[in-house]
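Aim 2 progress. For Hippurate hydrolase, the working sequence is reproduced below.
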Amino acid sequence: MDTQRARAVLTDLKSALDWQEDFYRDLHAHPELSHQESRTASLVADRLRESGYEVHEQVGGTGVVGVLANGDGPAVLLRADMDALPVKEATELPYASTATADDGTPVMHACGHDVHVTCLLGAAQLMASATEQWKGTLIALFQPAEEVGDGASGMVDDGLFSLIPRPRVALAQHVVPMRAGEVATQSGPTLAAADSMRITVHGRGAHGSMPQSAVDPVVLAAMIVVRLQTVVAREVAPGEPAVLTVGSIRAGTKSNIIPDRAEIQLNVRTYSEQTRSAVIDAVERITIAECQASKSPREPEFEMFERLPVTDNDPATTDSVAGTFADFFGDRAGSLGQWAASEDFSNLATEFDIPYTYWGIGGIDPEEFDRASKAGRVAQDIPANHSATFAPVIQPTLTTGTQALVVAALTWL
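Predicted structure tokens for this construct:
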């Protein structure tokens, strides 16, 4: 890409986007949970119309798609996610969220999706204001329900393909705990596949004073949890990334009652289908064996939910974006590495059978990050995504994220 074109599009970024910082603060103060992003979607649709886009609303529930056709050329899809998390904010920012869901659950933009929305709206406006610098079709897609893993497929199932031309490439970004102002790419498997599993094991209930009359599902569940710790340590090859986390055990109602069942919830993160299958098979094998060892009266029950694919960045597409970033950002462009987080963005691209890449932008105050890095305390001192204290600095985060989307899109347009 000719970086001169990108600089021409971005010339008036600060003056043209004088609304952007206040818009971000407003989004952050008014987060909405997955599938409930109605206010956010309305604001997005209004902004896209003001910029001259053909706008499609309520795609897959609350999804919004803006299409800007500008002559012959490829179509490029840029995606941002819109939903927030059930987290009580603890940032003490003047624009901190005090929002709650209908059931009283606190809600916070603890993963930076408010950054993503604001940056994509800015990029969409700048591209619409500089159509003499590019040809083709720009698709700005605002996706609901990333946090529960079904927003992308929901938009596809609701007829997304009939609303937009087939993109040449799909592009997306995520704010991460790096120095604000930096961008980072990664070729190949970048974000992990995620598989959540709910396991119900059965026992035989009894009075706590008569354990000989019971099959104790609490002890059974505890043995399963301990044994599951060996799966990654002893069944996955060294150097092959995998994570198995038991996040919940529920059993019983009273200290002197042995219950008749226990529920275990766990999450598996892997980067290849072979490892994914092997770990899930091991979980089921160990659970069944422990149930047999405990004389469980019934077979265990397994339920898979919230399943997300590997984000496997196309090498050629990633190389193109990385080269463009290096030209534009200089030494602020680097390598992202593999992250054990998960995403459903790739479902948009795989359904279209098109290449994609997904990169990171930094959101942490550079001085704060450097202090933590120098002390070897990044993990301890820098709030991570999904933390109640996760708070990207507004600048240069918004400017960098907006620039990255424009520069990446112009690699093809």
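The mean pLDDT is 96. This observation will guide construct design in the next reporting period.
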